[in-house]
Amino acid sequence: MELFNHSLRLHADPSRVVVRPFHLAWQANGHGVSRSERIIREVLDLSPAEAHAQLEVVLKDFEARHWQTRRVFMTRYDEIEAKHGLDGANISDEKRQLIGAYFCHEYSYAAAALMNPSAVAHFDQSGMPHGSQRILMSLRAVGEGHISSVAFREGIITEDNELKLAPEPPFATATDMLGSEEDEAPTGPVTVHRHRDSTLSGTVIFPITAAQSKGLEDLRLVQFRHDDGSMEWLGTYTAYNGSTIQSELLRTRDFRAFDLVPMTGTAARNKGIALFPRKVGGEYLAIGRQDGENLYLLRTDDLTHWDDGDLILTPEQPWEFVQIGNCGPPIEIDEGWLLLTHGVGAMRKYSIGAALLDKRDPSKVIGRTQQPILAAKDQDREGYVPNVVYTCGAMRHGDKLFMPYGIADSSVGFAFVEIKELLAAM
After folding, report:
1. I need a surface site. Which of 13, 31, 246, 416 has the fewest CB within 10 A?
2. Sign, CA torsion 260/266/269/275
3. Closest CA to 261 of 304, 319, 223
4. How do residues 154-174 score in pLDDT, each as one tens digit?
5. Residue 19 CB contacts under 8 Å (≥ 6 apart), including other chains
């Protein structure tokens, strides 16, 4: 089977930074004031000339590195004002900006790694020539403290196996949750918003809740068609707090507001759930690996609650003896549901395979590849975690699959494969 590997690679980039809130303890210290209160008071005590000079230093260091830096500082000040009951009408613009700057910090969100992408059709296909399709990719970006966030890239793929990525804007921006200045991280469902002037390729979703505090990992995006014909983009991901994991659901219809919703049920206590792109037999379906070793078909009437399902795939071949898992949402083709899988073999080497499930009853396995369609080798073996190739979701493009994939938990590569050749290998 011939696999066309594109020459393009995406790598970790420590120069990609965003301004994030810097949270200081609100509790009073031994002198009766908190550290945040002390900082605010000291800025307010500066003379106008001193405040001007200090703000100029900050802007000289950071204004060229971020988008609308002054507005970011003012927005952060507004949050601090609401928390501390400040009277902004009697505080100069420069002091308000300076206070905001003291409660921000710069974060390099992809300094350590860029990996585990998924791809879906873009919500805007206007102006596309025949044989071309605009795409949208999610990527797992890993920064300081090994904290994972969700980044996005837009691009175009053609019938000639070309991939053209939209350029990243010079400034990246983080999504915001309105009214997020709380004493403790929020729990439960939250909604975050892309800045109205930021492109999607320049947007990063960071952990918000306590359950997500150490990372949003491995988003598996799918374009979901509801029974009424409306479209919604859904994505399952792993929320990690440093000790426990849980599956959560991202929901969006416009890629401007994103609902981040915890999932419940026995299957949601593990990672790796991938949703089917529509209901089958009147039920929501997903592929899961709740035992960490085999693949199961999950069924529910509630997108946020998933219990144990039916065992459908177990390790069979030497390249998957350790464990198998899904590599993203099943893809509907005429012959059935095409499911990309990953297998782990000797020396913890990862490979990507595929299986075909019955269209009406996906618990029935029609076939599966006996050999990997992609395995770590040569230059793709080296990286942060060697010998790993991994994707969180491919997409159909005419008679082919377009498959972005992570390399050694460090970078991202891209491949095209003919669907008929993939089926012939089963």
Report:
1. 31
2. negative
3. 304
4. 999 999 999 999 988 877 888
5. 62, 66, 69, 72, 104, 105, 106, 107, 174
* Cα–Cα nearest to 372, from 334, 327, 404, 308: 327
CA–CA dist 65, 320 (Å, integer): 45
SS3 string of 112-136? CEEEEEEEEECCCCCCCCCCCEEEE
Q: Can you state the percent helix, strand and coil of the chain, rounding each to 5?
A: 20, 40, 40
**204 vs 290, higher pLDDT:** 204
For residues 330 and 276, give the distance between their C-alpha atoms in angstroms, rounded to a whole number.
6
Asked if residue 116 lies in contact with residue 389, where contact means CB atoms within 8 angstroms, the answer is no
Q: What is the pLDDT of residues 248-278, one digit of tens each?
A: 999 999 999 999 999 999 999 888 999 999 9
Residue 232 neighbours by CB distance under 10 Å: 14
Residue for token digits 């918000």? 208
- Is there a contact between 110 and 16 (Cβ–Cβ < 8 Å)? yes
- Amino acid identity for residue 122 in this structure: H
Share of the chain above pLDDT 70, in %: 93
Which pTM value belongs to this model?
A: 0.89
What's the rounded mean pLDDT across residues 323-344? 97
C-beta of residue 388 within 8 angstroms of C-beta of residue 376: yes
Among 333, 348, 345, 404, CA closest to 371: 345
Nearest CA to 407 out of 367, 378, 365 is that of 378
**Exposed/middle/buried for residue 114 (C-beta within 10 Å: 0-12, 13-18, 19+):** buried
The DSSP letter of residue 266 is G
Cβ-based neighbour number of residue 32 at 10 Å: 7
- 């059709």: which residue's tokens? 121
Residue with tokens 């301004």: 19
Question: How far apart, in Å, are the Cα atoms of 388 and each of 201, 234, 273, 318?
Answer: 26, 26, 20, 16
Give kind and range of the element (H or E) at residue 82.
helix 69-84
Tokens matching residue 304? 């946020």
User: Alpha-carbon distance 21 to 224, whole Å?
Assistant: 33
Which residues are bridge partners to 405 per DSSP? 413
